[in-house]
User: Fold these one by one.
Assistant:
Number 1:
Amino acid sequence: MVHLSAIALALAGVLPQLTQAAGLNTAAVAKGLLYFGSATDNPELTDSAYLTQLSNRDDFGQITPGNSQKWDATEPTQNTFSFTKGDVIADLASTNGQKLRCHNLVWHSQLPSWVSSGTWTNATLIAAMKNHITNVVTHYKGKCYAWDVVNEALNEDGSYRSSIFYTTIGEAYLPIAFAAAAAADPSVKLYYNDYNIESPGSKSTGAQKIVKLVQSYGAKIDGVGLQAHFIVGSTPSKSAQTTNLAAFTALGVEVAYTELDIRMTLPSTAALLAQQSTDYQDTVAACVANAKCVGVTIWDYTDKYSWVPSTFSGQGAACPWDDNLVKKPAYTGILNALGGSGSSTTTATTLATTTKATTTTTASSGSSTGVAHWGQCGGSGWTGGTTCASGYTCTYSNAWYSQCL
Ligand SMILES: O[C@@H]1[C@@H](O)[C@H](O[C@@H]2CO[C@@H](O[C@@H]3CO[C@@H](O)[C@H](O)[C@H]3O)[C@H](O)[C@H]2O)OC[C@H]1O
């Protein structure tokens, strides 16, 4: 069936178009992603210039709290919960009309000492973990697009990290955590999130085993978050990242780049900034190429507030905006991957189908073929529709069209 409304909307410019002027999020949505986003943190929000750019939905359609939803922030004392700082970020997302990625529930780091140094049995730690998850997820119910339920459970060789959770409970802590999160908010997407799982290898294989483990317990797992804390010049190729993403999505889960930044040894040079731009472009292009890659989040947008210099001695300049909130070449690299710096041609017949459309994009740097993730899923004329075709799930809709994955 031909949906003339999609053609009309596209021709009239109602659907997101790929133009020079489009920001990162606008271009990402036009390319079929759900969002392009940034992490942020409470102390930075007093910087009005920073806040203004963060709130610019043309660039950022999603934000993630960098620290304020972690266990040490939300349950510093057993069964005493504090949501004040996390609520500031959640409210900001709501005010700005941005999606919120919620981060994180179970992680070996930034734990309060009552957890990390407590005396636990299998039963008592399961109870404490479930109580934490239930309270935090319930508090933010309906506000998060996704939760990073378990963060960084793996060693580099793909074996389990010896966290308090693994050594006390064993691998069952993962499905137990996912099941508790699903019970508290059945609608929110539930993710496993880790670093160094962005190209094929032992750790990526370990993360795929976690997906299968959770599924084998009958618990819900919706996605895998690839942190993507990269180094300029050592970023995995687009090809390696594309192959890797496909291995995850073949398991029936979606994927997202959740903490992208690409650091360099300081001082930065023009050559390093150019390579950084290429590395950003390759990574975002890998996401665009996979129909189940829903978004990219950078781990703060400006070098001014990046976590990198305080964590990796002598390194920095990892973000697409510099210390003065001026865009770096990396910004253009991301936009190139999103088709934002060139022209885009999409055939009307492809647009009109209820299946995922294939978009051919001609960027200034060359030609590439990507997969558009959106589809006009129902209705007719200018009112559009919000019902997805059979076999598709509606992940976003507005008055004009639905996004169906
Ligand atoms: O002193 C601490 C300070 O060290 C802390 O820094 C944060 C550490 O976590 C960072 O985010 C993580 C980066 O990579 C992945 O491993 C994780 O998934 C992320 O959560 C965050 O950006 C830093 O700000 O902040 C609190 C201070 O008290």
Number 2:
Amino acid sequence: MPSRVSDAFRSHPLHFNHHKHLDFNSLKELPESHAWTATPLDHYPCTDPINTTTTESVPVIDLNDQNALDQVGHACRTWGVFQVSNHGIKTSLLHEVESAGKRLFSLPIEQKLRAARSPDGVSGYGVARISSFFPKLMWSEGFTIFGSPAEQARRLWPHGYSNFCDVIEEYEKEMKQLAGRLMWLILGSLGIAQEDVKWAGPKGDFTGAIQLNSYPACPDPDRAMGLAAHTDSTLLTILYQNNTSGLQVLREGSGWATVQPIPGALVVNVGDLLHILSNGLYPSVLHRAVVNRSQHRLSIAYLYGPPANVPISPLPKLVGPTRPPLYRPVTWVEYLDTKAKHFNKALASVRLCGHFNKALLAGDDH
Ligand SMILES: C=C1C[C@]23C[C@@]1(O)CC[C@H]2[C@@]12CCC[C@@](C)(C(=O)O1)[C@H]2[C@@H]3C(=O)O
Ligand SMILES: O=C(O)CCC(=O)C(=O)O
Ligand SMILES: [Fe+2]
């Protein structure tokens, strides 16, 4: 088993031919390669009709509100996602990172491919990692940054990469701080304090990745998919979306709810590792990105995880005689490796209590 996040995908490389990377802006029709077809893999183990939509709104929480703790707890239990305002990240930094993303994606395809993510790597330009589980391609391109952005940025702009790096590094620093604050707020809403999480002491080396997602305007949006339904393999994810909607979350019992962009707000969603840590009390949220005919959409996700090699398991305080531990311990690296292999069955594959067996994994068609 690899021990570093950067090595998590060694055993499941993602091979994509460069000719599959399209210059989206030059296309007047949706190519067959991108005409999305629902597959059984779209269907997670949930009871909802998968294509129903709802007009319900994701909770918006003012972090300065004195009831923020309770509101966060309620949102995590019932939605697995919420938007935050008064989060302390300067609007100017959000705009700068948005411009940096736009600058990157508007480069010619040949230039972007110079920073292509290697098949077994984490950082760089390419299609979403989960693409290999689907017969058709998604209408999006992505750029993943894990650790320093310098190596990839130098390939994109050999003579002028420092501005991009400065903005990304500043964003990483600010996001890491906010993600820590949000994690303790979320755990606090479960009655968990810092001393209850031994591995998360002051030296706890939490890690984060930045995922820039670009969704060009699409000539046939109803037949395309920006980013297929998935949960994040994180503790939590903080997402900045520009003023174009596209993010949808699955609301149990109701269907897909659009997360309307609110200027300056950030979207926070529960990831699979928080789902495990909370012993299933705060379920990770299934989400996807749809595309539209006239507007380019950009989103920037900060994927926040625990120290790479710490076994994550249900917190002892959330386990008891009436609530046995639902998941076995798993490190972030091991979980990313499992996700790369089993995608939507990864969480079930680490579940205890006989809810899952090897026969289910045998159905993987990856
Ligand atoms: C830390 C990570 C989580 C992620 C894989 C990655 O190494 C970096 C990219 C992340 C992302 C973003 C888009 C959706 C997703 C499922 C994917 O394909 O790449 C997530 C991965 C994840 O959360 O499993
Ligand atoms: O673009 C979006 O709104 C969703 C992005 C996302 O889910 C991700 O990067 O993990
Ligand atoms: Fe996501």
Number 3:
Amino acid sequence: MELTEREAALKSRARAFAEAVVAPRAAEIDRTESYPWDLVAALREAGFLGMTIPEALGGRAASYFDAVLVIEEMARHCAVAGRICVEANMGALGAVMAYGTEDQKRLAADLVLGEGDKPAICITEPEAGSAATEMRTRAERRQGGWVINGRKHWITGGGVSKLHLIFARAVENGVEQGIGGFIAVRRGEGDPPGLVIGPRQHAMGVRGIPETVVELRDLFIPDTMVLPSPGGFRRGFGALMDAYNAQRVGAATVALGIAAGALDHAIAYARRREQFGRPIAEFQGIQWMLADMAVAVDAARAMVHRAARSRGPNGFPDPVLAAKAKILAAETAVKVTNDALQIWGSAGYARDNPMERMVRDARMFTIAGGTAQILRNLVASDLLGMKLPQTRDGWLRVAERRAAAE
Ligand SMILES: CC(C)(COP(=O)(O)OP(=O)(O)OC[C@H]1O[C@@H](n2cnc3c(N)ncnc32)[C@H](O)[C@@H]1OP(=O)(O)O)[C@@H](O)C(=O)NCCC(=O)NCCSC(=O)CCS(=O)O
Ligand SMILES: Cc1cc2nc3c(=O)[nH]c(=O)nc-3n(C[C@H](O)[C@H](O)[C@H](O)COP(=O)(O)OP(=O)(O)OC[C@H]3O[C@@H](n4cnc5c(N)ncnc54)[C@H](O)[C@@H]3O)c2cc1C
């Protein structure tokens, strides 16, 4: 897909920034496992955080496609920088920009554009991963707001993010209303009371962003901080997932960037490494590996671009295209980074080599943001034109509903 002149200019500005500012920091961020506040400041200064925020709120009104162009360039060198750009342009931020009140949008815009915040999206729980709709976190109606109790885990940015979009079951007078999004802004330990950052979950890759448990202990959310998604709580989860499709495209782009970066390293090494008195690039076994890697990366990029440019029924990227893009990009990243490491031989296996980091970084994308299996369910459901319930009694309930309708 051709880029317009403006898009090509944005991509090359992002590339120059990534080469000069991001690449030199990547290894150190991984080694120290610490959140790169210096990079956050530089990314914010360069206008790459909050670029999708409307101009009226201080952003650039950039499209998700624009964001994708930037994210790939960052992730080519550093997956952490790529993921920060995803969460500061998509995910929770996208949901607030689409559904939020004017005050909520202003708050989110000020946090991201002014403070370089990377919002956190709090969906997953220890007993509700793929089966996210089985979450147990409850928001109980109280005077003037809601009180949330529950435990989330694997929350990206736990302890560094300020804005938290918390998914919880809304319960009023003991009756469940559906799943909603509740906004909390963390200013530090104990602020607000009840938003407790739990233990860090030490991860295999993308180590510069903390993944943590987030405990919600009688966290009070005023009515003004409930995200008023269309359809109310009854359609709350679906509406939040509509917005979440953008983050799936973002995650696919980080995977794509890692794969593209690994391919660059593999080509460079194949040209300079000599064995048997000749560059290893002269061996057909290596040439065909490189060719297959390039085919896979180009295919993933085409799919990611198609998804990023798409518009589903509710204005966000199309759910099926987002799922297809993430499946392909994530699996491509796993394969291509491993093949790139293979081309580097023992040097690639060394810890002070970027290949080892890229293999680890690539691994998360078939898991986080909807596993490759769950996303295949979504694609299959679309192909077959059937809802595909995954619970044991799911088909029975479908049959009962059909019988009742006849
Ligand atoms: C959706 C699932 C949780 C399966 O659960 P259910 O079988 O109970 O749900 P469904 O009936 O299929 O869906 C409920 C509701 O949501 C709508 N929906 C579902 N998926 C989408 C979508 N992609 N886009 C738009 N709408 C969607 C569906 O139509 C229903 O709507 P109505 O109620 O009928 O109106 C499960 O399939 C699933 O997706 N699990 C993965 C959970 C997940 O992605 N978690 C991500 C956590 S955040 C994260 O990992 C961040 C990492 S990174 O930075 O990316
Ligand atoms: C690095 C990282 C960052 C993350 N960041 C966040 C975040 O910021 N916010 C957040 O809310 N969550 C986050 N998550 C959590 C992530 O969304 C979940 O890990 C993911 O949804 C899968 O849930 P699970 O790990 O509990 O796996 P499970 O759901 O327990 O799945 C285990 C295995 O069973 C398979 N499986 C499950 N159900 C089915 C089915 N119906 N059909 C076929 N196979 C199935 C899965 O594909 C998987 O292979 C993150 C995870 C990681 C690893």
Number 4:
Amino acid sequence: MNDTAAKIRELTDLLNRYGYEYYTLDAPSVPDAEYDRLFHELEALEAAHPALKLPDSPTLRVGGAPLSAFAQVRHEVPMLSLSNAFSPQDESGAFDHAEMTAFDERVRGGLGGKPPQYVIEPKFDGLAVSLLYRDGVLVQAATRGDGSSGEDVTQNIRTVSDIPLRLRGGDTPALIEIRGEVLMFKADFAALNLRQEENGRKPFANPRNAAAGSLRQLDPRITAQRKLHFFPYSIARQEGGFSAGTHMQELDYCGRLGFALPEGNCGCFGSMAEILAFYEQMRQKRPALPYEIDGMVVKVNSLAQQHELGFISRAPRWAVAHKFPAEEALTVVEAIDVQ
Ligand SMILES: NC(=O)c1cnc(OC2CCCC2)nc1N
């Protein structure tokens, strides 16, 4: 590699590390002026040697030329959406968690009575996206769309500062598809709407609409100005790298790969009673959170148990077998009678 290419590689890695410290760890190790100096040095080298610009260059964060339209991306693994378990309040204001108790019973039934561990995490109120990394480099990002295919928003996603352009840590998987929620923090939403009104533009109704509108911009330079964030919540597929056995291990792995995690707002418990207590705590904490959540998501922690249950829930909902009593069942009854 010639020394210009080596210099571009060195500046790219250094600026990506500084960006991770600043945006994801909220712990910059250099002053902004030093970051800006190195950034302009990289911009100048890339302008002089366009062929040497790297796919994970931090200069991609400012957004390139506008698109005329979004391409469609087919999801290899359909993007499932969550069924809702509402907890209506009774007249005393207490929450009736009957639907959660029913969920717990269905899960235990589906696992042959084995007691599951549950993870409870925020239900982020943003928009779902899927991120594809090959050999550690972000190569494609898509919205959920109809679950089977979505819009290619790769250029716009590259402007989201806490989405790594290259995965961190060692043991990089050859391929990994990470799904999560793009959202706008409440404070950034308020500031954006102030700017909208100052410029005579319509304010956004809520942070979710603001995030969706900002991500589905054809001009990435507008997306870059919108201060979006991303939280991962599942690994859809993976080839190589660390093989998680539970959802908590998946989240922890995403943290090691360089993603931001909703620290302190997730929990893992062995009983629905503890889950509901955590739900109650989060309901109290909700107004003070920096981002909007519209509930909590409860998942079976073990991936093996998820796959086992997933099979049952993937059975056609529109058909059911109504079986005659098995012959041997009658025999067994007779055997008991005979004894
Ligand atoms: N809005 C959220 O915060 C959220 C959405 N989805 C999921 O999980 C998907 C992954 C597999 C089935 C549902 N988790 C979440 N936290």
